[in-house]
From TrEMBL:
Keywords: Pyridoxal phosphate. Its EC number is 4.2.3.1. The modification N6-(pyridoxal phosphate)lysine is found at K112. This is Threonine synthase. Coiled coil: none annotated. It comes from Herbinix hemicellulosilytica.
Length: 496
């Protein structure tokens, strides 16, 4: 029997795992959720004996049941290979008493690689499985990180093309450089003269353009999406939570069944939701600590039961968490409502209409697995400085939000040895802010010079992803107006 997926807003919209991956979003606007959460069936001893790839197979085979063993293993082997700079894939570093789960050893040195290196393979296999012979065209609007990780994941994957639109003057220099130097004959990067919202709106319009869809079908193409609500991104993220637990277990620091906590720097709520699924599978987890920056809409939600996006938006030094609508929270709402699709649909409608909703007392009781916390820019910088001073370990600005939240709320109550800080980016991705936080003066302007300085301070080698940028050839120079996005797509696909 296959595990089926249905919409968070309607149980009768039901699909297989591969169809959910192909579609991304349910046609009614809801997100796909599994009908039941599979349970871990192997003992801790057995799981602790597995390497990352074996553990990935253990998890993926339970959720993605319409893929064969051979298909899943092929996806896993292609994803978690030497694109990662360590065979551990997701190393757990012990620094002082605290554990850091480093999810930034992939191609673009941020945690998005954990899922975006496997999604292209899951997607192409899903197409074949559902008798779709069209080439898949991934369209993405990005504010910086997702675009690069998706480009790296889909580069040279047979049967796919990827087109990324980014705001020409709205991303950091490193982020732009990472994108415009992307290799791969199937990759296209276009700067638009507008902001991220323009890019996002333009992409949505292209997705819904029926005239274009017809032309695409005739030419043998179909659009798909790589954004973080795709179940094909969520499931691979469950793996590293189990992996982290087993690493602590292997150090003989856990009694049988003893629980640990995770602190997760959160934006769109995808990463921490995967931890919640790991807990529901039976992994001994106590608290899931949701760490926000100044855009603390989630902290307010966990403390009051009210989600309200009507507020000032702040640009912080942890830009990947600068977000006011956390899309994946819809899945948590569905679970804490007692899997009530009608209630979920109502609340999401309220969010859509007025930007606000309030959950019931019963639903709040079901939030007991979570705690929320937030850290300001100053607190985040202080965490980078103090951890470095005490231990020599240098964190990036997103990880530092999590570390600051632990320090601010939990250090007296929660044992650091039993707590894992989820580390979502390499400090080299945000060198300038990190150097500033470390109190270093006269920071050079050039990003490679900044990296060299960070190497001196952190004693960590410069990652390949940053070395490559230094002499990388610019391969993408397309720039267009917002109104020309569709024409760009037609030109790329030669369907004019
Ligand atoms: C995307 C991202 C996050 C937020 O993860 P969500 O799954 O969106 O909550 C945190 N840190 C970094 C570096 C990221 O790129």
């Amino acid at each position: 029997m296959n595990l089926m997926y249905h919409s968070t807003r309607n149980k009768s919209i039901k699909v297989t795992a591969s169809q959910a991956i192909l579609q991304g979003l349910s046609p009614d606007g809801g997100l796909f959720v599994p009908e039941t959460i599979p349970q871990l069936s192997k003992s801790v001893e057995e799981l602790a004996g597995m390497n990352y790839r074996e553990l990935a197979y253990e998890v993926l085979s339970k959720f993605l049941t319409d893929y064969s063993e051979e298909e899943l293993k092929d996806c896993i082997n292609k994803a978690y290979d030497d694109k990662f700079d360590t065979p551990e894939i997701a190393p757990l570093k012990k620094v002082g008493k605290m554990n850091y789960l480093e999810l930034f050893h992939g191609a673009t040195i941020a945690f998005k690689d954990m899922a975006l290196s496997i999604l292209p393979h899951l997607l192409t296999k899903a197409a074949r499985k559902n008798n779709i012979n069209d080439d898949i065209v991934i369209l993405t609007a990005t504010s910086g990180d997702t675009g690069k990780a998706a480009l790296a994941g889909f580069a040279d994957v047979k049967g796919t093309k990827i087109i990324v639109f980014y705001p020409k003057d709205g991303v950091s220099r490193v982020q732009e450089k990472q994108m415009v130097t992307q290799k791969g004959d199937n990759t296209y990067v276009i700067g638009i003269k507008g902001n991220f919202d323009d890019a996002q709106t333009g992409v949505k319009k292209i997705f819904n353009d029926t005239d274009l869809k017809e032309k695409m079908e005739k030419a043998g193409y179909r659009f798909s999406s790589a954004n973080s609500i795709n179940i094909g991104r969520l499931v691979p993220q469950i793996v590293y939570y189990i992996y982290a637990y087993m690493e602590i277990y292997k150090r003989n620091e856990l009694k049988s069944g003893e629980k640990i906590n995770f602190v997760v720097p959160t934006g769109n709520f995808g990463n921490i939701l995967a931890a919640y699924y790991a807990k529901k599978m039976g992994l001994p987890i106590d608290k899931l600590i949701c760490a926000s920056n100044d855009n603390k809409v989630l902290y307010d939600f966990f403390s009051t039961g009210v989600y309200d996006r009507n507020r000032e938006f702040f640009l912080t030094i942890s830009p990947s968490m600068d977000i006011l609508v956390s899309s994946n929270l819809e899945r948590l709402i569905y679970h804490i409502s007692g899997e009530d699709t009608q209630k979920t649909a109502e609340l999401m409608q309220a969010l859509n209409n007025g930007g606000r909703y309030e959950i019931s007392t019963d639903m709040r009781t079901n939030l007991k697995d979570f705690c929320g916390g937030y850290a300001t820019i100053e607190e985040t910088k202080k965490a980078i400085y103090e951890v470095y001073k005490e231990t020599g370990y240098v964190m990036d600005t997103h990880t530092a939000v999590a570390a600051a939240v632990y320090e601010k709320y939990f250090k007296n109550d929660i044992d650091p040895a039993m707590t894992v800080i989820v580390s979502t980016a390499s400090p080299y991705k945000f060198s300038e802010s990190v150097l500033e936080a470390l109190g270093i003066e006269n920071i050079p302007e050039d990003d490679y010079e900044q990296a060299k300085l960070l190497r001196e301070v952190s004693k960590v080698p410069i990652p390949g992803a940053v070395e490559e940028l230094n002499n990388a050839k610019i391969r993408h120079t397309r720039v267009c107006k917002v109104g020309e996005m569709k024409a760009q797509v037609e030109n790329i696909l030669k369907i004019i």
